[in-house]
Amino acid sequence: MIEIKHPLHVAVLVTDLAKADHFYGAVLGLPKVERSLRFPGSWYQIGLFQIHLIVAEGLNQALQNPEKLGRNPHMAFAVADLEATKQQLIGQGFPVQLSQSGRLALFTQDPDGNVVELSQIS
């Protein structure tokens, strides 16, 4: 059996790096880290975990279930205050869909339609 120690990163395809950098850096507040690769992209750090934004021109990411964002491929993060998070996303024009499970969670999308879950963890 393979023994996985911890997650390292997730690669997220984006078409407009400036818009994606704004979402992950300014809106979500993630710290950007150095990267030495020659193709366009950005890396963001969360503890030991990284998000690698990779530019893929002409990308068309259609949702399988637009009515329930959580039933699409997504990444999830814990937040301290879900209501404040919701208001900040709405204030900046990002879509917000509350979890229908009854959990303190919401789903949003980055500028390329990648789904992000934000859950309040006490």
Q: If you had to describe this structure to a student in words, what would you say it looks like?
A:
By secondary structure, this protein is α/β, with parallel strands linked by helices. The protein folds into two domains: 9-55, 2,3-Dihydroxybiphenyl 1,2-Dioxygenase, domain 1, CATH 3.10.180.10; 69-120, 2,3-Dihydroxybiphenyl 1,2-Dioxygenase, domain 1 (Roll). It is 17% helix and 33% strand. The chain has helices at 17-27, 82-91, and strands spanning 9-14, 32-33, 41-46, 49-55, 74-79, 97-98, 105-109, 115-120. The strands form two sheets. Strands 1-4-3-2 form a four-stranded mixed beta sheet, with helices on one face. The chain has a four-stranded mixed beta sheet with strand order 5-8-7-6, with helices on one face. Strand 6 (97-98) and strand 7 form a beta hairpin. It is globular. The N and C termini lie far apart (34 Å). The mean pLDDT is 93.
Instruction: Identify the strand order in the major beta sheet.
Output: 1-4-3-2
Q: Report how far the terminal alpha carbons are from each other.
A: 34 Å
Question: Using only CA atoms, what is the Rg?
Answer: 15 Å
CATH C-level category of the largest domain: Alpha Beta
Anisotropy-based shape: globular
Question: CATH fold name of the largest domain, please?
Answer: 2,3-Dihydroxybiphenyl 1,2-Dioxygenase, domain 1
Helix run count: 2
CATH architecture descriptor name of the largest domain: Roll
Percent of residues in beta strands?
A: 25-35%
The average pLDDT value, as a whole number, equals 93
Helix content: 10-25%
Largest sheet, described in full? 4 strands, mixed
